[in-house]
Amino acid sequence: MPSGVTVTQLMPGVPDLQHIYSLRYQVYAEELRMQPQNIDRKLVDNYDDYSTSFLAKRGKTAVGTIRVTLARNGPLEIAELYPNWRLHLHDARERGEHLAQLGRFVVRTDERHRKEAGPKLVRGALEFCRAEGITRLFFGAPLMQIKNYERYGGYLVDDNACFVSLNGEPLPSAYVLMAS
User: Fold this and answer.
1) % of the chain surpassing 70 pLDDT
2) How many other CB atoms sit within 10 Å of the CB of residue 15?
3) For residue 179, what pLDDT is reported?
4) pTM of the full predicted structure?
5) What is the C-alpha separation between 132 and 99, in angstroms, rounded?
6) In a 3-state reduction of DSSP, which class is residue 165?
7) Exposure class string for 118-131: b at 16+ Cβ within 10 A, else e
8) Average pLDDT over residues 56-79
9) For residues 62 and 144, which has the higher predicted lDDT (pLDDT)?
């Protein structure tokens, strides 16, 4: 019987990131059809150059991933995807907030029913954010994926984006992901 799920933190440039890029492609391009297919069968973007990723494995098999982008390392994807949030980002920075974004959260289809990889990935990402002194955490989610995030302790405030305070204060117009 396969062992439980382990989660590893990966910095940019390490070889295990190839597992992450392949898994993202499998879910976003092949399963959900939210990204175009490509010959490399990998889903990589510019944010990967300065983000920290977490890889969940069951034994030697990659079963899930989530990415954390710290605003001090580069732009957040949410500013590109949701232009109306640029003002919120600017205001938060002006208040001295330390910002980050969770993104590219996927769990393999055949693993989702176990409800183990997702919570471990989210917990690992939130622990990392707390250790890095992050005070505001963003997370965008399409409406079709909301049920997936609700399973991991989140709740919908609005369908535009996620904006959560790590001290538990939700902000308006946000998808809020809380640690369980």
Assistant:
1) 73
2) 7
3) 29
4) 0.79
5) 10
6) strand
7) bbbbbbbbbebbee
8) 91
9) 62
Two tokens at 148?
């997936």
User: In one letter, which amino acid is 122?
Assistant: V
* Assigned token pair, 135: 């005070």
Paired sense of beta strands 99-107 and 136-139, if any: parallel
85, two tokens: 């949030």
CA distance 13 to 144: 31
Q: Which of 54, 40, 66 is nearest to 11 (CA)?
A: 54
What is the DSSP secondary structure assignment for residue 30, as one 8-state letter? I
DSSP assignments along 99-158, one per residue: EEEEEEEEE-HHHHTT--HHHHHHHHHHHHHHHTT--EEEE---GGGHHHHHTTTEEES-
DSSP state of 16: T
Top-confidence residue, 156 or 35? 35
